[in-house]
Amino acid sequence: MSPRPTAPEPPHTTPSQLPLRFGYGTNGLADLRLDDALALLADLGYDGVGLTLDHMHLDPLAPDLASRTRKVAQRLAELGLTATVETGARYVLDPRRKHGPSLLDPDAGDRARRVALLIRAVRVAADLGAHAVHCFSGTLPAGTDEDTAWKRLAESLAPVLDAATATGIPLAVEPEPGHLLGTLDGFHRLRRELGDPEALGLTLDIGHCQCLEPLSPADCVREAAPWLRHVQIEDMRRGVHEHLPFGDGEIDFPPVLEALAATGYQGLTVVELPRHSHAGPEHAERSLPFLRGAAAPASPRPDGPVPPPAAPVAPPGEPSAAPEGRTP
């Protein structure tokens, strides 16, 4: 395994002066070959990529993973992109169960398969020089009480955190609507149960904050700041777990990005539109100018507020984006 490369911080620069760094998730570019997706993001001016390990993009279960990872690392370097490794592929372990098996599965062998995937993702992240590895808990299995599920989650993550500590790659757990760990309160419960290990961090999804957190998205950023290791971003409406293009939901983005910049966070802020791959290049092209405009000083702005991007029109024969609704 190659040592994790580090980039020196620019001299005479404080974290709060550094601009936010934007990426786009490959789970929203699933119809593109990985090399084409990376080239597109570099051409558009993104700083990095949220790389979901999946059968179409750096398959974590196919042969020669180490050599394939080296090639991706070289390509990222050539394009000037950084990465976060994401592990939310729907059917990478089980072709019949979405996100199955999970860290909460009643079968110990099935839980071990998810643990092995996450440890493999940590090693991939180290070889890519990635900022973090993202993961989530999974939904509460039928017939399992919550206390048992929390115990399984903590026990399952222990060896993953050991791998994260050994490689210097933080594990960034995401509160996911409908999952056992679904809120910031859930993250703090896990953190306490594990003894607050240094390698355990947080993936904060801005849309999820709008969907179900009692705090505003900007306040969620401020509350989560000490543990932020990865950020996902998209628009969303209150009470509906549906990832939306910017301008289609209810989030006021300038205060959110101002709060994020004030924390000094320097990982990637990754656009997360997994149901929009049919128009992925168009959404990627529209998203970056929107985010840069929203991250600019809010006042004074002679050109007024940041307008929402124009909604892309699906080419003939392409499906429209299926809403996620209230299911995880």
From TrEMBL:
Q: Answer whether the UniProt record assigns the keyword Transcription to this protein.
A: no
Composition bias type Pro residues, residue spans? 1-13, 299-318
Region Disordered: start-end pairs: 1-20, 277-328
Reading the lineage from the top rank, the first entry is Bacteria
Give start-end positions of Basic and acidic residues composition bias. Answer: 277-286
Q: Please note every region of biased composition (Low complexity).
A: 319-328
Which PANTHER family does this chain map to?
Answer: HYDROXYPYRUVATE ISOMERASE (PTHR12110), XYLOSE ISOMERASE (PTHR12110:SF52)
Name this polypeptide is given:
Sugar phosphate isomerase/epimerase
User: What is the source species?
Assistant: Streptomyces cadmiisoli
